Task: structure prediction
Amino acid sequence: MTAAEGTNRGGYANVQGRLYVMVGPPFSGKSWWVRHRFESTFGVRPAIVVPDLLRTLILGNTGYSEVDELVWANVHVTIKGLLAAGNHVVLDACNLRDHQRRKWARYDPVFVEMLTPLAVALERARACGMVDAEGFIRRGYDQWDKAKVQASRQRMMYYGITPESASGSASVAAGHGVDAGPDVSDHGQGAGVR
Ligand SMILES: Nc1ncnc2c1ncn2[C@@H]1O[C@H](COP(=O)(O)OP(=O)(O)OP(=O)(O)O)[C@@H](O)[C@H]1O
Ligand SMILES: [Mg+2]
Result:
């Protein structure tokens, strides 16, 4: 059985796909990992939901927190519909706070957390010429409630991704999705890919 075929749907009988919730501060590499590593890790091709793109579509700018409620209401409807139609779905957003992630618990999600050190994120921003992103990135790191703690408490599936495992230099044991070291724990039921 693969992670995508997990059996615990958390009581949501009409949901057939699996929800993967990315977690990590800005520039930690979430979008990169979804694009380059997701399929080889989980063996499924997901629909990718990116709230920042929706925010841009609505207002042409990602900076308006006033529309957050509208954006997230749309994200929720979209994800629910995609899951019900049998798609596997990735939510590509920072999801740094416990309360932001808790609302997805009903879908029995898999958390994929980028364990990227601050210095690496800052270096990536510099390499992209985004020198003024430093404050924004630091704020993200300051706000971060680690999903690993929440996953453990609430018995949810969890994968921790280090820069080494993302780049492929860390060993990835056969049958294990990523980084089968201490940062990976499976709290879900019936999920075989770890
Ligand atoms: N494992 C990696 N190896 C090399 N470059 C990477 C890696 N991960 C991310 N990057 C680069 O770092 C930058 C930031 O990555 P990415 O956009 O994926 O971050 P993010 O977590 O999605 O950020 P945001 O929250 O702002 O959307 C990009 O230029 C990306 O190409
Ligand atoms: Mg991104």
Notes: The chain has one domain: 15-186.
